[in-house]
Amino acid sequence: MPEIKKIVLTGGPCAGKTTALVKIVEYFSGMGYKVFTVPEVPTLYSTGGWNYLTPNRQLYYEGERAILETQLSLEDQFYRLAEVCEKPVLIVCDRGAMDISAYIKPEEWQEITQMVDTDSDKLRQRYDAVLHLVSAADGAEQYYTTATNATRYEKADEEGLRLARELDKKVINAWSGHSHLRVINNHDDFNAKLNRVIKEISNVLGLPQPLEKERLYKVEVIGEIPGAIESEITQTYLVAEPGCEIRLRRRMWSGGKVVNVHRSKKRISDTEELETERKVDNNLYEQMLQQADPYRSTIKKRRQSFIWKGQHFEIDTFQEPVNDLVILQSKGVAEQESVKFPPFVKVLEDVTGNSRYYNYNIALRK
What is the pLDDT along the chain (366 residues), one digit of tens a residue? Predict the structure, then answer.
């Protein structure tokens, strides 16, 4: 059977998914992959006459259930096609099962998933990665339009932009807990957004990537962070060969969601590195802890993830082995772009490229 990877391409209204899908098919087909694209199921039902804004609650409820059942069935059928291919296969789902939960009440979502003998955790695990493209309504309003989607209900006015931003965050919340959720920023140059998509998929496929410096800042939080997704992280470095960094991370969200990820990162040249990630269960996690690097302490920190003006940020407040350090990371901001710092953060120092502030070195025992 060929190597098969299945990813979700999702995002809020007017995020650029349609254009990104074309770029993905073109690029990875040229890299020798057979690329299948699973169509956006809610749009199939909307264009067929169903409307999720219907006042008929039973019609609404049955429609959402039908969408979930169709989504799962379509994905399974495409996976069967992939199994008989001779090339490695990339399956790209135009939205995935968890997107449906962003449009439905939590209690109704629970009922529907129980009917099809599944739950949110199982649904997230169906995919190797989730790429969320931030809506143009957040930070790229000048490009927001409803003309490209006849079924879009969030209009291009102030109220529509507000609804689109809210929906964008609901979708991210729905996928939080996936071990490889990546949020793709808006950029002044849309091609930069597309290139970020290609890079993240290449990581999933295990293709070498150019080395990039993460944009890091030592900060002080001076106000409330609106809409932040909070989690607790425990990070342990394992014994590894020279030139290779192996990290074991446990991340816990409110509500009891726990994800363990084993990551290996190895530099293969002066300009490229190879990074692989895999999710591990609790038993394997405990076993792997026996391989902890004796020269490095376990890192514990609280993470707050949020979007501000179309850019994705993470704020890490360290608890161990240091407790006086707060680091902001701007995720996916291109080198030539400026960071749109939120007003509730005071930047104390730009520490980009300063190895002293890399987690790997923070963990080093003194």
Answer: 899 999 999 987 666 788 899 899 998 998 889 999 999 999 899 899 998 888 998 898 899 999 999 999 999 999 999 999 999 999 999 999 999 999 888 999 999 999 999 999 999 999 999 999 987 655 445 444 444 444 444 455 566 667 777 888 889 999 998 989 999 887 666 777 888 899 899 989 988 777 677 789 999 999 999 889 899 999 999 999 888 999 999 999 887 889 899 999 888 777 778 888 888 999 999 999 999 999 999 999 999 998 888 888 999 999 999 999 999 998 777 677 789 999 999 999 999 989 999 999 999 997
Q: Specify the 3-state DSSP secondary structure of 43.
A: helix
Ordered DSSP codes for 220-259? EE-S--TTPEEEEEEEEEEP--TTEEEEEEEEEETTS-EE
**Between the CA of residue 57 and those of 52, 53, 62, 172, what are the distances in Å?**
9, 9, 9, 25
Distance of CA 305 to the CA centre of its chain: 11
Residue 257 gets the label, from left (phi > 0), alpha (psi -120 to 50) or beta, of: beta
CB-CB contact of 133 with 11 (8 Å): yes
Tell me how far apart the alpha carbons of residues 136 and 323 are, in angstroms, rounded to a whole number.
37
Tally of CB atoms within 10 A around 331 = 17
**Distances 285 to 232, 238, 289 between C-alpha atoms, Å:** 16, 12, 6
CA of residue 9 relative to chain centroid, distance: 9
With a CB cutoff of 8 Å and minimum separation 6, the contacts of 315 are 219, 221, 225, 228, 303, 304, 326, 327, 328, 329, 345
Q: What is the DSSP letter of 207?
A: -
What the block records as the tokens of 233 is 């992280």
